[in-house]
Design brief:
This protein has 175 residues and is an alpha/beta fold. 52% of the residues lie in helices and 13% in strands. It has eight helices and five strands, in the order E-H-E-H-H-H-E-H-E-H-H-E-H. A five-stranded parallel sheet has the order 2-3-1-4-5, with helices on both faces. Helix 2 crosses helix 4, helix 3 packs across helix 4 and helix 4 packs parallel to helix 5.
Length: 175
């Protein structure tokens, strides 16, 4: 097991949750999805929090939940797409783990998120345009992550797990 948590950052649809679960299993580590933790703590869906309290309140809750998770023993953590935008969160991640940006292009992301109602930022008349704008705005910030791994539409989760392990210089554990 790694001595620090592995924190996956990147756009919605980049594979943070799906790859994160498999990475955790391959490394015999616990997996935590920050969005799931937020829903558990608040007893509300992410979309409900956005609708009822707005994005700033959601981001404040997200930061508190991330700080709690990072205070726990090393694990694989999937953050929400906007979590890494906060300088405070970037510092927490850098101090307490290995930040890994799962970088994907617009078409890969769009193929994974289109038509999904649980993406509050895409609930509008032109979701692909919004996704493109978010990608352009966020990519320079995601680039601050300690590591970068490219996620492509035609790559399996297992290939992604191998790429992350190679990038971090760690070996998969035997079953």
């Amino acid at each position: 097991m790694t001595e620090k948590s592995i924190i996956l950052v990147g756009m919605m649809g980049s594979g943070k949750s799906s790859v994160g679960r498999r990475l955790a299993a391959a490394l015999h580590m616990n997996f935590v999805d920050v969005d799931n933790e937020i829903e558990e703590v608040s007893q509300r869906a992410i979309a409900e929090i956005f609708a009822e309290y707005g994005e700033p309140e959601f981001r404040a809750l997200e930061s508190r939940v991330l700080a709690r998770i990072l205070s726990e023993p090393p694990q694989v953590i999937a953050t929400g797409g906007g979590a890494f935008l906060s300088e405070k969160n970037r510092q927490l991640i850098a101090e307490n783990g290995h930040g890994v940006w799962l970088d994907a292009d617009l078409e890969t992301l769009w193929s994974r998120v289109k038509g999904k109602a649980h993406r509050p930022l895409l609930q509008n008349d032109n979701p692909k345009q919004i996704l493109q704008e978010l990608l352009e705005k966020r990519s320079p910030i995601y680039a601050y992550a300690e590591h970068k791994v490219v996620s492509q539409a035609d790559q399996s989760h297992e290939i992604m797990v191998d790429k992350i392990c190679k990038t971090l210089g760690i070996e998969r554990k035997k079953p």
